[in-house]
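REQUEST FORM: STRUCTURE PREDICTION
Request ID: SP-0412
Submitted by: Lab K.M.
Chain count: 1
Length (residues): 325
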Amino acid sequence: MKKNYRWGILGAGRIADKFCTALNFVEGATVYAIASRDSEKAKAYATKFNATKCYDNYEELMQDENVDIIYIATPHAFHYEQTMACLNKGKHVLCEKPMALSYRQTAAMIHAATKNKVFLMEGMWTACMPFIEKIKELIAADVIGRLQYVSADFGFNTPVDLEGRLYNKSLGGGSMMDVGIYPLFFATLLLGEPSLVKAVYKLSVTGVDEYVNVVLQYPDGETAHLLSSIHFNTAIEAEIIGTKGKIKINNPWFKATDFNVYLADNKVQKFSVPHMSNGFEYEIMEVMNCLDKGLLQSEKMPHQLTLLISKTMEEILMQAGLVYE
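STATUS: Completed
RESULT:
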C-alpha cells in the first residue's frame, strides 16, 4: 500500500468488532477512531483496538480531518442518513450491506458519492474473497461451460424477539435484508439482472419476513433459486451448474475457503484458498487499493452491481408486501 489509511468506525456492534480485528491485521491500515452513541462502548472498543480517538457521537467522527475513510457498521435502517452525511462532508465510505432500505436510497447515495467525488462501496465482504475470484476465473475459462443454474441459501434459527433487530421492521429486520442479500449477491454477480422474479414467503407477527424462497429467471433461460431464513436452519451451501460441469461450495459458502469442481468425465477438482485473518481483510485491502489508485468505486463491488441487487431485492420484498422506507 502507498500510504497508511486511518479508518473511522461508525458504530460499535458485533460486526464492527470483526471488522476491526481484520483491520488491525492489514498492513497500512489503522483503527484511528471509533464512534458510538454509547460512550462506554466507544471507550472499550478504542482500548481493545488501540484507536487514537473515540467519540460518543457520529458527527465528530465525520468532522475529524484525520479520518481517511469511514466504515458504517450500524443497523440497515441508519445507513442512508449516516452515509449521506459522510459523503456530503467529503469522506470516503465503506457501508455495510445492505447499503440502504430501498433502491431510491441506494441510487441517491451513489449519486452523492459521484457528485462529491468520493469513494463509496457496499460492504459485501464475500465479493472480495479469493474463492469468488477463483470461481470467476474458472467460469471465464469455460471450465464448467455455459451457466444454467445457480442456487444459494442462508438461514438460521433464532429465538423470536419481537423487540430485537431481526424482527423490528423499523430497523430493517427480516431474513431478506439480513442474510438474503448473500444469495442474491451471488446470483446477480454470476447471472446479472433477472427477467422474472417469483417469491414465496412467510411474515412474522411484526410484519417482517421469517423466510423468503425466490426463483429468478434470466433472459437467456438461466435460473436461480435463493432461500433466506431467520426461522429455521438451512444448508448454507451454493451450487453453480453449467453445460460441462458444476461448482459446489459447502457450508459456510458465503465465506468459503474450499470448493469443488465436478466435471462431466467424473473428475473432481478441489480448490483451497484459506483466509489470512477472518475474511474481512479482503474488502479492507480492496478499498485501500482503490484509494491508492484514486478510484471512486471498486471493480469487485461496483456501483452498478449494488444498484442491481437493490432493485431485485426491492421487487422480492414488494411481492411479500414489505416496504421499509
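NOTES: The first strand starts at residue 5 and ends at 10.
Reviewed by: T.R.
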